[in-house]
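User: Fold this; tokens only.

Assistant: Input:
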Amino acid sequence: MTRILFVCLGNICRSPLAQAVAQDLALTHQLDLEVDSAGTGHWHVGEAPCQNSIVVASQNGLDISSYKARQVTQKDFEHFDFVIGLDESNISNLKAMGCLHPLKLGDFGFNGQDVPDPYFFNGFEGFDKVFSMIETCVKNFIKEKIIT
């Protein structure tokens, strides 16, 4: 079994979407994956994903409404085979927390670009854009690192 952890800042928008996309791909392709998500920050621990993330996931056939935010821990770095940050800030935070080799999701389809926080866009359009980026990158990551 391969274990993958997606990490953003609060674990309420980007990383839950990445988790759901990867879990869906695992089911579709019958891959033996354990997928989770977490945030480097503690502000939203125990909360459901934000409403716009729930909506954009639903529009793409995914249900993240039961997910609960959690903060990344030191044990995660030992448990997961791949720890994937969604932007450079998360990568820096992960390294500062002791993660030796975090990957950046944008390296798998967007030439190393950050997957931006959708709150920096006006309205729901940012969530559509971010979901599209995440879906592309997660698919590419799984093709490159898992299905070999």
